[in-house]
Structure formats: C-alpha cells, structure tokens
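pipeline/complex-builder :: batch 7 item 3
reading input block
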Amino acid sequence: MYEFEYQKPKTLAAAADVLKKKKDAKLMAGGMTLIPTLKLRLAKLSHVVDLAGMKDLVGIKATKAGVTIGAMTTHGAVAASAAVKKAIPALAHLADGIGDPAVRNRGTIGGSISNNDPAADYPAGLVGLGATVVTTQRKIPADKFFLGMFETALKRGEIVKAVEFPIPKRAAYMKFPNPASRYAIVGVFVAETADGVRVAVTGAGGCVFRVPEMEAALAKKFAPESVVGVSIPTDGLNEDIHASAEYRAHLVTVMAKRAVAAAIGG
Amino acid sequence: MTDMSIGRAVKRTEDLRFITGKGHYLDDFSRPHQTYAAFVRSPHAHAEIKKINKTKALKVPGVVAVLTGDELAADKIGTLICGWVIKGKDGSPHKAPPHPALATKKVRYVGDHVAVVIGETLDAAKDGAEAVEVEYRTLPAAVDTASAHKPGQPQLHAEAPNNLCYDWEIGDRAKVDAAFSGAAHAVKLQFVNNRLVPNAIEPRAALADYDTGSGEFTLYTTSQNPHVARLVLSAFIGIAPEHKLRVIAPDVGGGFGSKIFIYAEETVALWAARKIGRPVKWTAERSESFVSDAHGRDHVTTAELATDKDGKFLAMRVNTVANLGAYLSTFASAVPTYLYATLLAGQYKTPLIYCDVQGVFTNTTPVDAYRGAGRPEATYVVERLVEEMAAKLKIAPDELRRRNFVQANEFPYTTPVIHQYDCGDFQRAQREALRVADVAGFAQRKADAKKRGKLRGLGYSSYIEACGIAPSAAVGSLGGGVGLWESATIRFNPTGNVSIHVGTHSHGQSHQTTFAQVVADRLGVPFESVEIVEGDTARTPFGMGTYGSRSAAVGLSAVSKAADKIVEKGKKIAGHLLEAAPQDIEFRDGKFRVMGTDKEVGIAQVAFAAYVPHNYPKDLEPGFEETAFYDPLNFSFPAGTHVAEVEIDPETGTTEIVNYSAVDDFGTIINPMIVEGQVHGGIVQGVGQALLEGAVYDADGQLASGSYMDYTMPRADNVPSFKVETIVVPSPLNPLGVKGCGEAGAIAAPAAVMNAVHDALRAVGVDKVEMPATPHRVWSAIRNAKKKAAK
C-alpha cells in the first residue's frame, strides 16, 4: 500500500469538496474493492475519503410504492431486511449472493454501483428493476447510470446517496458464479414491472445490458419457454480462462429461463 | 487401554492454541534491529538481463541495501540444488543447470528472483524494489509441456539441449510391445494431469539472523524439514558450516510438500543478513506464493492397457512428459519417475509394465512434490485405464478390478516396477466400499436424476501408494542423495514427565497429539506428561522431516525403538532398586515388576533414581534418556477403494459431487479422528484437482490464474459429507504396523471423481473431459458430442 491521507468527513458536502480539490482522492464506502486494490499497489491515491459513519446514508425505507436503500447500507443488511424480503425478495436474494460473509458485512450498495464492476450483481438488480439512483446532485435512472466497464454517469464530486427501487409484480435473479471469485460469469435479473418486463444481464459483457428480444417475448407470455429460443449474439461478450463468449451467451439464455421460472414459482 | 491409548480418538492438544490465535507462525517472530526484504521479480517468462540499475532504489528513504545475483556469486554462495539424480535411458545423469538464488544473466519464469531490496520497513523495501531499474531483452518462452522438448522450441538452458532434463524409462519395452500385439483388447488414453498451486494457508517466510560475535546463523523458516534445510544450506549452498547454522521452524501452517524445498528466498535472507549485519525478514504475499512456491503435477500422458479376452490385464504402456518448470527444485526429478512410474501396477497383477518419462524445462515456476507426489498421477493413469477398459469390454468396473486384484494371500507381492507390496486386502476394501457407497442403489438414483434432467455417474478409484519414504539403501540405489531414516530421543525428566525430541515436523499432522499417544501407551506415563519437541535443529536429533506420509511409519518407529531402549535401561535400574536381576523384571502399564511377585516400581521413580543416583547400579550410566534411529525395511503401502458419485447439469456443465465414500487400509490407526481428518483434507484436495484447480499459463508464460480471483480453491460447498471407513491390515514391517494416511485422499480422489464424470457423460456421447472438469469444459464437451452426433 502506498501512503495516502485518510479523511473521514462529517458531511457529504465536505466529502465532495475533497474530491473536487484533490485529483487523486477517492471515496471509500465499504472498501471491499478499494482496499485490496490499494494493498496490491494497483492504485496510488492522495486521499481516501471514508464515508463510514454517515448515518443518513444507512438504512432501508419501504413504502407501498417502493423500497429506498441508503448508499452505505451493506449487502448483509439488504439480504437480512424483512422489508426487502417482503417487497422485493429477488433483491434480498441478490444481496445474499454477493461475495462472502465478510464482503456482505462491509460492502455497500453505493460502493458497488459506483464501482460498476462488469461482474457485480447489483447493476443487474438496478437495471432489472428499473431503479433510480439518487445522488447529491440529481436522480439518475438505472438505465442511464451504468455507462461501461467501471464507468458510471457520476460526475466528479457527485456522490450516491440512495437507490430507489419500484416494487415489481414478480422478479428473480439467477447467477452463474465464476468458480474461483464467485463474481457473476453471467447473472440475469428478470422482473415484471408496472412499466413492462425487464431482463438485465451482468457478467456477460463489459457492462450490464438489457435483452429487448427476451423482454418482448416475456411481455407476450411470462413463461420460461418464452426465452428458450432467444439467444444473444456473442459479439462484445467477455472471454477469459473460465468462460468463452459462446458459453456466456448460452448461459444468458439458461439463467434467464431459470430466473423466469423462479419468478413465477416465487 | 486408557482413553489416551493408541487407537483412541484423542482430541488434538494443539487445537486450543491454534484456534485461539496463540500459535507461533513464522511472521509472528521478530528480531531486534530487524530489516525487511522485498524481491524484485521477473515480469517476463524468459529474458536476458541487460542491466540492473540500483541508483534510484538506493535513494528511496529507508532502503538499506540493494543486492543482485552478481554479488551473490562473488560471495561464492552456491546455487540451489536438486538432491536426486535420475539416470536416463542411455545411463547418463539428468541435466541440472545452475539455479542461482538471484538470477544473473537470464530470467526463466515470471517471478524469478532478480534482486533483493532490504529496507528499514516493509514499505521501504517495497518502494525500493519498485525503483530498481532492470533492463531486459525479452526472449520467446517455452510454456507448453507436451512440446517443450520438440525441435524448434525456445531454449532455456545451454546445459539441457531441447529443454530435456532426462529421458527415463522403467520396464521392458520389447516384452510389453509383444504383449500388446498379441492382446485381445487394448485401450489408449491421452490426458493432462493438471498443474496445481499448493496454497498452504501460511505463506512461506524466512527470518535470518547472523551473530557477528559467535559467527552463528539462525534461520527461522517455514519448513517441513529443518535439518534438511540446514544440511542443504550448509553443505551445498555454502552459507555456513553446519554447526554454525541453526534452523528453527516454529508452527507451520500447511505445506503439502511446498515447504520441503530449499528456496531462493531463505538463501538470500541468510546471505543478506550477514552482508548488512542485521536480521532480515521476508514473508511471501499471496501473489508471490502463486509464482514462487513449487507447483505440483503437470504431466501430459499417453497410456495404454492390454487385456486378454476375459479382461485379464496383460500389459501397460505409458509415456509421460513431465513439466519440471524453469529449474530443478529440491526433489523435482524423482517425483515423475521413481515416485510415479513405480506405482503403475496399482492394485493389479499386470505382469508387464513399461513407462518412459521425458522431464522437460519450461519457462514456468519450478514443479516439485505436492501432496501425493507422483502417486496421484499414477493412480489417475491406472484407474482411468481400468474404467475405460471396463466400458469397452462391457464388464462392470468393480468386477474387472476384482478379476485383476492382487489377492490377500499373494503378499508379499513384487510388481514389475520395483516395489514389493508387504500386505493388503484389496478385495475386502472394495467390498466394504461398495456397501458404504450403496452401489446397489445407484441405478435407481441415476434414474431419479434423469427425471430431474441431471446426468448421474459413479466412479471408482482403487488406489495403492508407496509412502513412509523410505529405506535409505533403496533410495540411494535409485539416485537419491540422502538417507531417509528418522530419529527420536526420549528424555525422562527427573520429575517423571517426558520430552520427546524428533526429527519430523508437523505442519498440520497433529504430532503433538499422536506422538504423545504412542509414548503414553508404550511407557505407561500420563498423556499429559508427554511433550513433543520438533522443528529446531538445536533441540532435536537429526531427522529427515515430514512428507510422503512418513512421520508415523518412519518417525513413530524411531520413537517406538527409543521406547524399547528406555524400557531396557529401566529394567536394569528397577532390578537394582527391587534387588532382582534385570532379566527377571517385566514392564507393563508404566511399572517395572519382579516377575511372579508384587514387587514393583513405577517408571517415574526409576527416572528419579536415574537422575539422583544415590542408590544406583555401579556399572550403569546415570540419566534416563535414549535416542534411536530407524531406517525402514521398505516403503509402506496404504491402499483402498474410493467411490464418487456425481450429478451433472447438462445445461450449464456444472458437476456436483453428491456422494463420496472411502474405505482405506492405513494399517494400525493411532488416532481415528485425526486419520479421518487427514482423509477429508486429502479428498478435498483431490476434488480440487478434478473439478476446480488448475494453474493456467498463457502463451507468453504469464500465470493467468495467479490469484484467488482466478485460481479455484475448493470450498466447503464444493463437497458433500464424506462417508469414510477403514479396514486394518497391519504392516508387518514396522513396530506399530502403521502405513500412513496423509496423502491417500489426494491420491485416490481425482480418479474417482473423473471416472464418475466420464460415467455420467457417456450417456450423452462424451468420451473425454480433462481436469479440472470445469462447467465450461463439461458444457463444451457435451456440445461437441452433440455436434458430432448430428453430423
């Protein structure tokens, strides 16, 4: 780890101020990606701005319309939340499958989506449910938040405060994990929402994406067999020692089918 | 028999301190004025070192020294050695090119040591290491095992043309070829035995201290064999005369073989400590462990089995290319030869076996012994062949095995590949395994699985292994440079408690518990009064260490012999105290008694008399301490049958192990709970090799699986609850009848799991999947079989 200055501001305004003034400053939420990166000397920062202790950013609020999750709420808290389990069980299930217990008890939703790892689970949940990201400056629909690999719509100094999830009619998330890291090789979130059916895929490409052909097929008939015949093109899909693009494309269909079955069953 | 006797499931006395964080692992140690070492490692698989510029590094605050291979060579520090010379087909010794602890002209694998930076702090050392400027001229790399010795490949060492370390053989090729040409049936398989990274939970580390006053070195290191480390560092590498070097290995957190070897890092730490006059500490980071701990396996094999019309085995023919990595590690040469091909008879009466092995250098991390060392590879060859032959002949695989087993009444049995098996009952172990695994109910379970869309398969592995390595004369005749005996000192203290000093060293094997059980049992002293001393060359007699499942078979035999000597001496003292002749004294349950009388004296009183010899035999030395050395008569031969049952999801290619049963013969069992734990750990590592683990190099020689993000370690949810039982056929060749249990699981499991995978996939036309049978590989195999069938 290279030396850096550690700061723990009391307000979001103060945190944003450091980010604006210091070029090599970075926010830390749960630190589950940032700390290993620092330990491996893969990042050299001037300042680490720790958001821990900002109580306003922690917590889950459920209303009839939706569930709002504070940016500093841990995956473990989401997974264990009775309100989330009742309103959007698929989201609780998703959170319960992130990383391992240590990661779930430190890692946060705000940190995860701001990092936008191409194999992270939450981006599929946000896009799949048509969530809205609430920042210090505005509200950003999930469809416009995730721009590319480790890239989001956040501007310098803009900080995620919360995520608002509408409650779907039914939904499910199916992940095929990387056997080593247990990140998603492919994760598919399927939801039947007030605005229609949404199918969001993580892990397969450089960034979360939707599958309009599956959404259209499911809009006609929300059943597993509707997606069986829909295969996605391999162009632009990830390839690594664990999975070829072809295998990933195949898994998207299989996981989508299973997600639909689970959504109906659950 | 007490609750602490041989055969009882005594709880591990070391666990309290380990579980509560009170263990003393290497990184817990520090010395006054200590410095820290960080290695500059090669980022290239193969390159010439044109220039090393230290200037910037030396300016980094806190950097104490920057040292390179040229300085190491100038100080006449020797190169790292391989202690076993293999003679090739033409009788010539293997090629052992120099293996400098710090590279001089060339680097030969990613992670190879280029320089060391010593810092006041670890961060200073790391900052300094980043500031060392090394100018490389990169060279093409030879990475692929199978082709490394073929013409036109990049050459690693001038001393080893065509990257060939040796071309070795065993058996009579002409007779084997003749048997094949006359055989009714033959099968031929080609497969890879995948390269594994050891991944001990405690990374390797070294803390070197040089006492300028006495001229003595002390090395604290993560070692399975501190005396061997001292011998090699002294006699071959030339750090110091042996009596001026003390090696201490405190608690060691796993090794699986990787902590047998004498590496560059401890060598450099010792040298640097003297050079700068301060202690030097190095602890591997996990990413360093991935590239610098000796890897395991990495074979490419073609194997054939011939039978008569009834499935009786006639001959086996095997060719293996074994990847040795960039340099020869300490015992690397022996693993794919004498620890591998000598096990190709398995449990069967195959009369003719021929195997040749090309040991090749590649631009990869050196490969050496890893849990099982050669025997998992041999078992995989034998058991995959048997399973495929059974499928070809349409004979049940358990039946085909029974037709060929060495029978219980045929021991001692000499195989065509050197070994003489002392004893065993292969048929009984298989019979019990069939029962434990409920093989009778498999057809129903397979049918049920099919209804759920799953492919279910069952696979056997009837393995045998040679452990308890080994008679010194045998090892010497085969090219080994060391003796492989063991030693023990039993020291009674005047107050009656006992210290046992042994040359083995536990790195997870529970010696503190099992050795104390044996001593308590043999000498009738309370279990709690026995202390086991290991891991310090200044406190233990010379011993060869812990590997090859030898600590019980060889080490405890030495303890047992020392206990015999204690009893003999005790009889003389007791005879004097009881006014009887020593030959009239019998020893039982900790008491010396005049035969046929009730006159007796306890062993603690005898010990006191030995140290306070006011009333003592005139012709006897005071003291109650005996040392014994034990050189085994033979290897020991644990054997058994494992049965794996898997379910494969054809949509994703995921394999789930749904049942795993093992029936092993380890001879006499000292502590059944600890044995079961060893079997569990071994099976998990074997499952890891079969389904999960694999070191992957890209074409440039970069380790693509260099962290836990990409290297799949087995986890608890990858395995079911195991059903583990034992049968006991005591070895007639050692005092306790033990055989060894440390590696059996890792030896048996890969073949059992892969036989089950192949059994499941046969239904969908798949004839071959390589290890690790990852979901991607299995799915691809199924898809390719479908495509082929469609044509």
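note: Chain A has two domains: 5-166, 170-265.
queue -> next item
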